[in-house]
Amino acid sequence: MAASFRRWSPGRRKRQAWLTAGLFLLPAIALYLVFAFIPTLEVFEYSLNRWDGISPDREWVGLGNYDRLFGDRIFWEAFFNTVEWTAIIVVINVGLGVVLAAILARKIKGRIFFQTCMFIPVIQAPITTAIIWRWMYQPNGAINEGLNAIGLGFLATPWLGDLTTALPALAIAHSWSTLGLSIVIFLAGLQAVDDELYDAAKIDGATPIQAFWYITLPALRPVTAVVFVLTATAAFKAFDLIWGTTQGGPIRATEILATYMYKRGVLENNYGYGSAVAVALLVIVTLAMAVYLYMQARRDD
Amino acid sequence: MSRKPLVYGLLTLVSLLMLAPLLMTAFTSLKPAEELVSPPWVPPLAPTFEHFVTTWIDANFNTYFLNSVIISTVDAVVMIVIASAAAYALTFLKFPGKPVIYALLLAGLMIPPTAIILPLYVTEQRLGLLNTHLGVILADLALAVPIFIFLMSAYFRRIPKELRDAARVDGASEIQVYWRVILPISTPAIITTGLLEFLWSWNDLLLRLLFLTEDNLRTLTVGMLFFQGTQTRDISGLTSAAMIMAIPIIIIFIIFQRHFVQGMTQGAVK
Amino acid sequence: MIKRQIGLVLAATALSGTMAISAWAQTEIEVWVGGEPGTTNVYDDLAAAYMAANPDVQINVTKVGSDLFNPVLVPSLSGGEGPDVFMYGTGPGQPAAIINGGLVADLTPYYRQYGWDAMIPESIENTTSSDGRLWAVGNEVENTAMFYNRAIFDELGLGVPETWADFEATVEALIEAGYDTPIGLGAADRWPISHWQSMLFGRFASPAGVEEVMFGDGAWTEAAFVDASALLQEMTEEGYFGPNPVANGYAEIMDSFWAGDIPMTFTGPWIVPGAVESLGDGIADFGTFQVPPMADDQAIHPTEDIGSGFYVNANSEHPDVSADILDFFFFNDDGRLMLLNNGSIPIGSLTELLPDSTLPAITADLRAQIDSHRPNGTIHAFLDTVTPASMTNVTYDGLQALMLGVMTPEQFVEAIQAEWEVAKAVGAILMPGGVADN
């Protein structure tokens, strides 16, 4: 790559290339730097201080907050909860998302109706989503009443009041409210798949499942990366649903890094430490995404 | 053929699960005060639109609605332009430092807005953007642009390079290629970007609450917050507000969703 | 009506005496309020009344969502902007950062000038002051009590329990009658458990015992607090709060309570205005009582706290007008009556106001009960809002752990004491309360 590049660009053309690319990139990158990246660097700076977010003086503590972070039992608890939470959401949104998108992309009756239904949860404001899932998961809520009604009452359980079921239950709720996004992105990706491929496969006697496996999935690889990254980062940042239902409880069963950061940094006016949690979150996820995208790119080559 | 019932069974089950909560919200929003103690899945016996009237007029949702429409529309349109332009450069142009740009954007996917509210507030303050819609729009765009650049790039990567090269050979400038060749065949990606950015902008609360403290500038999500206290909530206000927020998006989705299937048979990308 | 106009004239006179503003100048005062839905509208009315009497002042009332008040207020205050007057949590724990950071104005001069000292009860003064200076004005008093369904009690022939044994018998009778949740408790929302904790801690330790920890050398690990925590755990185990209290949300529990599915719940009058709206006259089926003493050596101490306080921004250009507005809102009879009729109880004596008020009977009744037990001394209703936020989070986690039976009472009090000591060490607790005499 580097070698071919050198051959291609003598000095003047290099400047030219920069200029053209710069023109295309400038609006996005300038906005991003001013309103997202530089503020983030400032958060990194906060994380090197003991600071309540209010008083004019900050106390420089170097890496002290990070040192404390590594020994913080609750931070690690929240970290592993976050991993479990994200894993459940990614599996549902990518797995179920691709299957449903593949079905909806075919010419089936009532497609528009089904497609709209899948998308409806996405449009709910976060406050509404939290209220809805409180209705669903209450001990006498919609799910338990529904289970009782169809004779599966033995499966009824206090979903959000149980230390083992609370996190998966909320992860499913989060997936519910974001699955439509995955489907839409997969559907957009499927537009690029040539119908003739399916016709040819049909003539060759391939079953729909084989066609899905050998045509749809490989064609969706780049879009899958987008859905994966989008779903995983959204899950890592998720806050409103948990805050509106359990606030991280019972005890700390649904405490994820985003809620922990909010409690420490904002509610407890411990901005320095809260910022350290934020930076740790940022670094962990960025690294994870980078590794994933790198592997994805290598597979594509 | 025996698979058909299975497929429809799955679709119906998922659709039901997806739809039920909206129905509960709708039921509750139509219940008169004395029916509110009945479970949310029980339909209203004497449906009333009074909560919608109260929310729309007394709770100022007419103003909030207009503000939300302005901010979200600008967000969506500008996002389409800046994200597709950046993705065009990253996909089709050769220039040094590309990996740096990628790395920079990758970090941006993960910035949690709650973590940066303090420095972001100071930035907006210095630029005189507090209590302006522009301030909210710029921050919205900045925080979401990385994901849309990735989304657009993923789509552009499927467009054959020869298409662009041929146009260049014919003497078109990069901007002409981008505008006349690439964008017109990227409708699904454009629609997806516009729809998602509109939606996220529509539903965002934190930045709006933070930067817009003048009531006549505020948006629907902020208005909705006033129905939710720490101890009590006004469920009629909340659900009617939720319906007011949901209906326009459902309509937009229904209008635009044909684009998700149209490209298939047209085969613009081959 | 006439009385009200006199009040306005008086307020106007008081104002013209304290300010030197030329008649044409409009002084703009930004006021930020948070709170429960519906309760904040009264500030629009209060502001309008004030402006009617003071045409040279323009008050802009901005509502800020209560749950997100902190993240919105802190950046604007530390950015040197923000409102002139704002609502915020009170002490000793909550406002330490904004007071230590010099972001709020000292209200002590106004306290003397307007004679607020004659109206603010000592317990409230303690939580709104430190270093002998007053920082905030409490806007409303809140209490907690047992709310019960009279119809259910009557049907089962149950009376209001007078002793703890009565109370236990009542709960058992209700369980026997098929109410599997005799006392509703929305423990999933965490803070409702702290209402029980606050009441039990106060009852077992007495008001002096709690104050000794808050403002003296006492510790949360003392036997009284262990016993109180043990009782909460025991009540949970015996099903007083139903099979799965930790899964219950507060709003959902309240719906079940008003629907008649749950006979009792321990909460406060902030819930009444909404209930009146949906139940109408049906509210008469519900009453309140004070939980009987849990042991022979205990008395009934009513719970009482201020939900929050109003502060004046240290960077405000008009601190005098801001203080005058606070005086009108919370210490002037017209302002206080407007608050009262909106269902929020202003601080200080209400004897003269109550006859003119339209307070719902259930709330007025509760107020009378509290006043009759007041000589025993009041205890905190919301320990979670007066202790530092770091301790509040540990308390919430611990209370749920107690209820789920995965923590012992001893472990619980040790956990909160440890966090209390940390907060003390970093100066997050303001001491001592009270305004200096001179």
Explain this structure.
The complex is a heterotrimer of chains A (301), B (270) and C (438). Chain A is mainly α and 301 residues long. In chain A, 75% of the residues lie in helices and 1% in strands. Chain B is mainly α and 270 residues long. The longest helix of chain B is centred in the first third of the chain and has 32 residues, at 61-92. Chain C has 438 residues and is α/β, with parallel strands linked by helices. Helices cover 47% and strands 11% of the residues of chain C. Chain C has helices at residues 2-18, 41-53, 69-78, 96-100, 108-113, 122-127, 150-155, 164-176, 191-215, 223-237, 250-258, 272-279, 319-331, 333-341, 361-373, 383-386, 389-404, 409-425; strands spanning 27-33, 57-63, 85-88, 129-130, 133-134, 137-138, 141-142, 145-149, 183-184, 264-267, 286-289, 305-306, 309-312. In chain C, strand 4 (129-130) and strand 5 (133-134) form a beta hairpin. In chain C, helix 9 runs antiparallel to helix 10, helix 10 crosses helix 18 (409-425) and helix 17 runs antiparallel to helix 18. Chains in contact: A-B, A-C, B-C. The A-C interface holds A 52-56, 134-135, 137-141, 158-163, 243, 245-247, 249-252, 263, 266-270 and C 67, 70-71, 74-75, 77-78, 97-98, 100-103, 187-190, 242-249, 251-252, 256, 388-390, 393, 396-397, 400-401, 404, 406.
* Element-by-element helix/strand order of chain B: HHHHHHHHHHHHH
What oligomerization state is this entry in? heterotrimer
Radius of gyration of chain B: 23 Å
- Could you report the average pLDDT of chain B, rounded to the nearest whole number? 88
Question: What is the strand content of chain A?
Answer: under 5%
- Poorly predicted spans of chain A: 1-9
Question: H/E order of the elements of chain A?
Answer: HHEEHHHHHHHHHHHH
Report the end-to-end length of chain B measured between terminal Cα atoms: 30 Å
Number of strands of chain A: 2
Mean pLDDT of chain A: 88
Distance N terminus to C terminus of chain A? 13 Å
Report the biggest beta sheet of chain B as strand number plus sense, adding barrel if it closes. Answer: none
Helix content of chain A: over 70%
| SS-derived structural category of chain A | mainly alpha
Which class of secondary structure composition applies to the elements of chain B? mainly alpha
Largest sheet of chain A: 2 strands, antiparallel
> How many helices of chain B?
13
Q: Share of helix among residues of chain B?
A: over 70%
